[in-house]
């Protein structure tokens, strides 16, 4: 087998790491938001957390296998991460702040990929 086909996706690694971190923090924030007293006020945020975790996981997997659709997935991931960061920023809890930061970092990495691929 050709060694290049087996080489790690180093050009994608920073974005893969950012996507995985964002997915994890979105899942954790989702769980914590469900336990907050104002859960109804967080409905939009909670839905965005689920969407964000899903697209981040999908984008990381696609980059890992060097999918032909990395460009489109990273573009969508950046858009959804921006929306999730905006929603999380509306709430004062530390888990929301950490999630918003991870979403912003992921969006930035995804934009780099969108421009690179």
TrEMBL record:
Pfam families xref list: Csp
Organism: Clostridium carboxidivorans P7
Gene3D superfamilies recorded: 1.20.1270.360
Annotated InterPro entries: Csp_YhjQ (IPR005560), YHJQ-like (IPR044543)
Protein known as: Ferredoxin
Signal peptide segment: none
């Amino acid at each position: 087998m050709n060694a290049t086909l087996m080489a790690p996706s180093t050009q994608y690694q920073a974005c893969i790491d950012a996507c995985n971190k964002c997915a994890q923090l979105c899942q954790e924030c989702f769980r914590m938001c469900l336990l907050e007293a104002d859960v109804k006020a967080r409905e939009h945020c909670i839905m965005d957390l689920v969407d964000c975790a899903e697209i981040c996981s999908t984008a990381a997997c696609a980059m890992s296998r060097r999918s032909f659709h990395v460009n489109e997935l990273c573009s969508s991931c950046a858009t959804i991460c921006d929306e999730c960061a905006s929603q999380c920023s509306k709430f004062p809890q530390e888990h929301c702040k950490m999630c918003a930061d991870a979403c912003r970092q992921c969006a930035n990495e995804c934009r780099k990929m969108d421009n690179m691929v």
